[in-house]
Amino acid sequence: MKIDLTNIDQVDFEKSALIPAIVQDSFSGVILMQGFMNKDALAKTLETTLVTFYSRSKERLWTKGESSKNVLNLDSIYTDCDRDSLLILANPQGPTCHLGTNSCFDIATPQLAFLDKLNKVIANRKNDDVTESYTASLFAKDISRSAQKVGEEGVEVALAAMKNDKEELLNESADLLYHLFVLLQRQECDLNDVIKVLQSRHK
To answer: What does 85-119 look like in DSSP terms, one character per residue?
Structure first.
C-alpha cells in the first residue's frame, strides 16, 4: 500500500516503535540498503524528501548522506500487507554504502539493472579522450553518425534473426542497445523516458 503523505498513521507502529525500512532504487530496482524508522524518522522523510532513519548506534534520527552528501531522494513509500515494514523507492545521489559501492548488497544485483549501469557509464565517458574511448569518439562526431549506427545495427539484428543465428542475434542486439543509449543521450533523452512511453501505451 502506498503511504498517503498526509497520514503516516497508515503505518502500524503499535507492534514496534522501530520498523524495518528497505530502500530500493526507483529506476533500476536495485536494493540499496536497509535501516529502521520510527514515526519521527518517517515524518521527517516525508517532510524533507530525504530518506531519514532512526540510528540505533547513534540513538537519534539520521538522514542518509548527512556526512557523505550521498543522500537518498525520496520517490515514494509503501507498506507491506501488515503495515509494519516499509519499502522506500528513492533516487540515490552517489554510492549508498559506506564502503563506496552503490548498494549495501552490492553483489545481489538484478540483471536488468545492468542497463541502468550501462546508461550511466555512457554518460560518464562522453567527455573522455576520444583516442581511448569508443563512446567518447561517438559523442565527438556529428549526431548523424550515431543515428546511422542505430540504423545499421537494427538491420543487423533483423538479418541475424532471418538467418536463425541466435549468437549473432544476441551480439547484434547488444550493439543496437548500446548505440541506442548513445543516441538517446545525445538527444537529451533517457532510457527512463522510453519506459514511460511504453507504460503509457500499456493496457
So the answer is: SEEEEEEESS--STTSSS-TTTT---TTHHHHHHH
State the Cα–Cα distance between residues 73 and 51, nearest whole angstrom. Answer: 6
The kind and range of the H/E element at 36 are strand 31-37
Q: Is the pLDDT of residue 53 over 60?
A: yes
Outline where DSSP puts E strands in 145-187. none
Crossing angle for the helix pair 166-186 and 191-201, to the nearest 10 degrees: 110
What does the radius of gyration of the chain's CA atoms come to, in whole angstroms?
A: 21
Q: Which amino acid is at 174?
A: A
Sign of the CA dihedral with 184 first, then 186, 156, and 116 last: negative
Dihedral sign for Cα 53, 66, 30, 102, please.
negative
Taking CA atoms, 17 is separated from 6, 57, 58, 127, in Å, by 20, 16, 16, 49
Three-state SS at 71: coil
Q: What is the pLDDT of residues 20-48, one digit of tens each?
A: 999 999 988 899 999 999 999 999 999 99
Average pLDDT over residues 161-182: 96
Grid cell at residue 158:
533483423
